[in-house]
Amino acid sequence: VAAVKDIESYAQSVAEDRPELLKPYDASDALPLKDRFELDLSPGKKNIPDPPRDFKEFSTIEDAKSYFSLYFPDMKVDLNGVADKSGARALSQLERLRRVYPELITGDLIVNTEAALPEFMQEEIVESLAWTWQLDNSLGLNTKFFGDDDALRIAVKRLKKIGHAVETSAGVAEQIVTHEVGHLAYNALNSELTARIDELFDSYEGVLARKVSGYAATEPKEFAAESFAKLYLTNSTNTVLKKMRAIFEEGGIVFPVKKSQAQKSAESVARRFVLKRSIEAKREFTKSQSPVRNI
After folding, report:
1. Is residue 26 predicted with pLDDT exceeding 50?
2. C-alpha to C-alpha distances, 249 to 155, 180, 241, 246, 285, nearest whole angstrom
3. In what order do the strands lie in the sheet with 138-141?
4. Please, what is the average pLDDT of the chain?
């Protein structure tokens, strides 16, 4: 506000000393000079609250709609026709990924395929579980599958049967969304890094189905997306994935450190030990303060 007032004051002095420098502009030219510098304080982007620090998984699609509407009002979110269970899990995973990679997930979230994609692409993705649109980083969920939890499970079961899905402990919806964000990650890399992925694909094509997934062996872009999913969702560290991790990280896409089951178990044992000692110490202190003594 102070800066705008300084500009207004400067403009006023210019108008008084050198009126010939003022150029007329549309209807506002008829306004008093001070009104041409009004600061717009109407509600807008500056009043959008930050998302809560601790994210709680969505229970329903309505939870997701409310969340994105409140914290990302500029994002077009069309979730009509998405089933509650798989949809809520997919969107929860998307938000978890957005918190790690905010620079990747910047586009719309849409399920209305016909309205979202140009006609020439509609046939191509009609049988896809989900898709990304490179031009604006939008991400879509196909309601043919995400509109029906059973249909989604059957589709993924078929994919796994022929080796076209990353094997992880994550749920179906989580794997699909992570794969799609992998495409966004690939799109964010420069041409030198994507060329290295192409070379890696050619070098290891014969073993990609075993090292990553069957789908990874189909083309470099799917290799990149499946590798991203496996690196994000698992602790896999084979030769191919190590090289893919290095390429992604060189491009600024760093993967969170995942604790192994052994680490989790060790930490759990340590916490229980500390808790046990704390309880024992508290009991001893209570006994020492008690007026009743056992003799």
Report:
1. no
2. 32, 18, 12, 5, 52
3. 77-78, 109-110, 138-141, 130-133
4. 77
Q: pLDDT digits over 131-146, tens only?
A: 887 777 888 888 888 8
CA distances from 283 to 88, 158, 290 (A): 45, 57, 11
Dist CA 141 CA 127 (whole Å): 11
Q: Indicate whether 290 pLDDT > 70.
A: no
How far, in Å, CA of 136 to CA of 163, rounded? 30
Q: Determine the Cα–Cα distance for residues 45 and 67; give it in Å rounded to an integer.
A: 16
pTM assigned to the model: 0.70
* Cβ pair 226, 244 in contact under 8 A: no
Kindly provide the b/e burial profile for residues 202-237, where b requires at least 16 CB atoms within 10 angstroms of the residue's own CB. eebeeebbebbbbbbbbebbbbbbbbbbbbbbeebe
